[in-house]
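Minutes, methods subgroup
Present: GH (chair), OT, SY

1. OT presented the first of two proteins processed in the latest run. Sequence and structure tokens recorded below as shown on screen.
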Amino acid sequence: MRDAIARALTWVLTTFLTPHRPGRHTADFLTAQPQPLPPAPVSPWSRPWTSPSKEEAAAFFRQQDAADQERRVKRERRRAAALAARGIDYPYTYDGAPFGPDAFAVTEASA
């Protein structure tokens, strides 16, 4: 019985008579904390290499295809202009042209 009384008395004395330490339930804890530092900039080398998403890759290839198509059209126009300067008919057609490539066919009567 004496042990139980001694333990209870020790618990009461340590709980109520020790100076109150600031903890998370006191206002002292909130005011005593320093301001958090701003997050450091993330280096691209700190994470593994990631590939582009499906949408980003599709947009890139569409843009590249449009540029290739434009280059092909310009090359064909230059070729047609160079051949026309020499007097050679080149079957250059385009969407909405009034005539097709068969209009350039060489026939026996025109040759």
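2. SY then presented the second protein from the same run.
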Amino acid sequence: MIEIRGLRKTYRSRKQSVNAVDNVDLTVGEGEVYGVLGQSGAGKSTLLRCVNMLERPDTGTVAVDGVELTALGGKRLRIARHGIGMIHQHFALLSSRTVAGNVAFALEVTGAPRAERRARVAELLELVGLSGRADAYPSQLSGGQKQRVGIARALAARPKVLLSDEATSALDPETTDSILRLLLDLNRRLGLTILLITHEMTVVKRICTSAAVMRDGKFVESGRVADLLRRDSELARDLFPLDGPSSVDGSAVLDVTVSGDDADKPLLAEVARRFDTDVRILAGHVETLAATRAGRWRIAVPTAASEDAADFLRKSGAQVGVAS
């Protein structure tokens, strides 16, 4: 659905140049929720704006739904953008228009007839849970309600792809949770492909099937969340930080990561039984992510049994490493 190859975008001034996006490749499959995670200045927003050509890359190609946007310009590009919706961090609503008027604006741009606009606006406001707020103005809405208006507006032209630019970073945790539930519901009900950028690990945990970690304009790692959890990835460590001790007298301290069905198997109890040894859980937890169950533990196993325990856990599908 989204194919990016060799994307570069450099900003230049008299004194310096900054590689905001540096030779990035990205594939987002149809119906996927893909998260790009990184701190401020990593290049996430520039990458997102290159997807719909709000920023034209210096080199590389961007294709959405089989159409190479980097080869288009003028009217052809404007028409192609109708298939890409975008929601913003600070809502970007028109203060002089009502909720219904804000959503209708996106349809006015496409030239939809008035009757069609009216019916579509009503449909969208019901979809995002705002059917009773059509005549309200943005100043009368909460942050979560404003973002729901933004989502309805982004969906007005029936896009196949939805881009999310830090859509929850201005919201409190409870409202963030409700917006993420809405996005996941829209993904499942409408078959939307969603590409989002965020600096919040909670967003990746809740709704992303795939993710990339971006730093200094490059992807440090990328792939399906379930696959990243199966190896000693930066994402796995950030999703499940372990704050237990890294050394215990007389024991080997191991970090164990599991995903899928393995997350609910009594693997640690089986180690204790199989090798007649103690297993101490120093830290860890199991959670349900958007696409899979996953867990990570830091355990202490008596040194004499540690190699056998680690080998058994690896053969059982776990990722095992020495704590550091």
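Chair's summary of item 2: The two ends are 40 Å apart (CA to CA).
Next meeting: continue with the remaining queue.
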